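Most newcomers find our protein records easier to grasp once they have seen one. To make this concrete, we reproduce a full record directly below:

===
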Amino acid sequence: MAPQTVAPHRQTVPPLVAPPRALQSTREEIRFRALTHMLAAVAATPAQSRPFPHVFIEGLFPADLYEEMLAWLPEPELYEAFSYEKHATDGQSNRGCFKMTRESLSRLPERGRWLWQGVRDALGSPEFKSAVFDRLSEGLAYRFGVSREEAACTPGYALPELFRETTGYRIKPHPDTRRKLVTMQIALAQNDRQQQVGTEFYSRSLNPMAMLREPRGFDVVKRMPFLPNVAYAFVVINTLRLRSWHGRTTLEGPCGVRNTILNIWYARAEDGNPELMG
């Protein structure tokens, strides 16, 4: 399969400007504080190539803001049932999604609403997209068959959403749809006790024994540590030579709730969050 092509595009990213003092502790101040820290965290993170182009970022958010995010997670009943695969425990969905839209956020208490609006705005900002795409430019260049400079300027439209997953959840190896350019997942762990429940990166296995275990036909090359305030992001690649295989073997036993933010950049504006495109 030939690499996909994309027309060169340079996105103008405005400089960060601190909000007026009158807006401290509001949505705009939260966005600024979060984004300033996020850009530095991404800049300090080297890209990795095995098994496919990705980054693993530690300390993505300011520590005090991260603690507040954990404290203001939406109540479980505000999440909508969501699953690529129909797995459930006791008749209940074991994967829920909280959409970061104005309608959903309006259901939160005022402080929680400001907090998640500010975090959402930082995740969906052109500055953050530019920083992540620059770090992953080698993988984007491979996918689109262009230079790294052109690849870093590929248009992308963010869709950040909150997810919660519980015992029994799994998702089989998949490379992600080509509608997606970059997939990022941010762990919202309370401590290091859930380290083993992170997303897994795979490669195809030639060992016949691999068909007798989960995930069938694949080897686990890496498991992203599910630790407080860490994130990974990878370029979505689906060619004959290379695919961004990832997934999660079944969460078993008392694994607790796996709270995350999925922040996905799509190729088309209609797939992103329209409230982030103003």
Remarks:
- The two ends are 36 Å apart (CA to CA).
- Helices lie at 27-43, 63-71, 102-105, 110-123, 126-135, 137-144, 148-152.
- The longest strand covers residues 157-165.
- The chain has seven helices and 13 strands.
